[in-house]
Amino acid sequence: MAKRYRAIGSLQIASSGQNSGNRIKTIATQPAIFLTGSPMRHITVMTLTASVGLLTMFIVDFVDLLYIAQLDDSALTAAMGFAATILFFGTAFNIGLMIATSALASRRIGRGEAGYARRYLTNILVLSMMLIIPLATIFFVFAPQILDLAGASGTAKDAAIGYIRIVSPFMPFSVAAMVCSGFLRAHGAAARAMNVTLSMGITNAVLDPIFIFGLDLGVNGAAMATSCAAMVSAVVAIFPIFKQYGGFEKFRSDWFNEDIKPIFAILLPAILTNVATPVGGFISYRYIAGYSDEVVAAFAVMGRIVPVAFCLLFSLSGAIGPIIGQNFGALQFDRIRLTIKQAMGFALGYTLLIWPVLYLFNDPISDLFNLEAQGRHLFWLFAVVLTPLFFFNGMLFIANAACNNLERPRWSMMMNWARNTIGLIPFLWLGDKLYGLDGVVIGPGIGGILFGIIGYVVARNLVTRQEVEHHDPNAEKPVITPF
After folding, report:
1. Is residue 258 part of a domain?
2. Buried/exposed code over 420-438 (b: 16+ C-beta within 10 A; e: otherwise)
3. What are phi and psi of 239, to 5 degrees?
4. Could you list the residue ranges that cross the membrane (predicted)?
5. What is the pLDDT of residues 76-97, one digit of tens each?
6. pLDDT tier at 9, thresholds 50, 70, 90
7. Residue 120 is assigned to a structural domain of this protein
8. 123 secondary structure, DSSP code
9. Cβ–Cβ < 8 Å for 238, 248
10. Cβ burial, residue 293 (10 Å; 0-12/13-18/19+)
11. Domain limit, last residue, from 199, 229, 251
12. Helix boundaries (H) for 289-331
């Protein structure tokens, strides 16, 4: 079946009337690489390369804030927080568009329809500009009013307005970089996709100290560095698409109207899925806000450590999405099952590797951030008790990727919102009532266990359901069993 799809795809490319023989050769030589070979190898390569760029961004964000903190003005540090909170909504759109691109394009690539994948890329880029330009305009014009709603005032508000108004005009570059990165991942071009986020992080890291300290621009300098990084990443993302994958299909309104429904079917749930996590974080902070400053400081340290320590788990869902998508396009359901099973093993192995590291270094990390008394105890609790439970978060990430790439993105959205509401609030409340502050820390981890298992069961049943619906002639009788 997969061979037949690839053959059809080659015929379509050869007969599509492309105006360059070299271009035909370039496109035809880009196979759907995830249809063969070890799924674990694909998972490892895609996850490691994705994590390099992601880790760079996490570290740069940390250093960015650290640079502003060196200006010794807490209002400027607060301004960075307010601006990041507002601009996150643009990031949610970017991630949703990237997921839609990766899911739709990988499925077509798996069927051997490279031209259709490029058509999706063109239409999603057009749609992204239609969405992000009005959003950027709203941010630019109404930044003061939005920050009033967020509770900002004084110097923090003024500095945040400046940051938002410098960054918002460059949001189209960021979304173009993310969409093209999703297309590269759909092709399995892990290193090229990694270079997109890596270039953004490196550019930011180089320009931050120059603009913030060298030119004495402060928060505005940080915004300028971020804007330059967005432009660089867009160039790095677009260049290989022209060089290796035949560029973009010509825009046609009838194709756009035809594709808009499947695009939005993935896009809207993906955006809402990404908004759920900060909502859960806000709820958690409401519970600890009444405790001492040292407790809040410990939670802040955890918030900085988690993205760095568990970067591979955060990268995993984006890494396995194209693998599932290509094999779904080729109707290779056994390989989808194997991919999900081996991704679970990868998540477990990585969690068991990080656990002793955080346990051994919990005292040095507490010393580095000057944690004392309750704050020090909470970080120890995080390192010893919560760290191994992150495996269940990894299970949910994998389940979300399966749903997004198996035509059920709404399931992913519902699971993520349920995890950050039903799987959070009752456990926070019960933990607080029974065990006080320790219960507030551990309670959400118990909720994570529940939804990690639910996610695994949902992913397992979804593969079987899709196998039945698509009537794969090579499939055995669909019996719902563990992977």
Report:
1. no
2. beebbbebbeebbeeeebb
3. -55, -50
4. 43-69, 75-99, 120-143, 163-184, 196-215, 221-242, 263-283, 295-317, 338-358, 378-399, 411-429, 441-459
5. 766 776 777 678 778 777 877 8
6. very low
7. yes
8. H
9. no
10. exposed
11. 251
12. 293-309, 311-329
User: Higher pLDDT residue, 343 or 321?
Assistant: 343
Task: Decide if pLDDT at 152 tops 50.
Answer: yes
Buried b (16+ CB within 10 A) or exposed e, 355-383: beebeeebeebbeebebeebbbbbbbbbb
Task: Answer yes or no: do 176 and 28 share one domain.
Answer: yes
Token pair in block for residue 424: 């959070």
Separation CA 246–CA 115 (nearest Å): 9
* The two three-digit tokens of residue 115, written as one number: 């031209």
Residue 105: exposure state from Cβ atoms within 10 A (0-12, 13-18, ≥19): buried
Angstrom distance (rounded) from CA 113 to CA 11: 10
CA distance linking residue 132 with residue 92, whole number of Å: 11
68: containing domain: 1-39+55-251
On the 0-12 / 13-18 / 19+ scale of CB atoms within 10 A, 129 is middle
Left (φ > 0), alpha (ψ -120 to 50) or beta: where does 95 sit? alpha
**How high is the pLDDT of residue 242?**
85
Task: Determine the Cα–Cα distance for residues 128 and 226; give it in Å rounded to an integer.
Answer: 20
Residue 411 near residue 423 (C-beta atoms within 8 A)? no
Quick one: tokens of 1?
């079946």
Instruction: Give the mean pLDDT of 377-388.
Output: 90
In tens, the pLDDT along 228-281 reads 998 998 999 888 888 877 778 787 888 888 878 888 877 788 778 777 776 777
The residue to which tokens 């859960």 are assigned:
280
Say yes or no: 441 and 415 in one domain. yes
For residues 439 and 115, which has the higher predicted lDDT (pLDDT)? 439
Helices then strands, counting H and E runs in the chain, come out as 19, 0
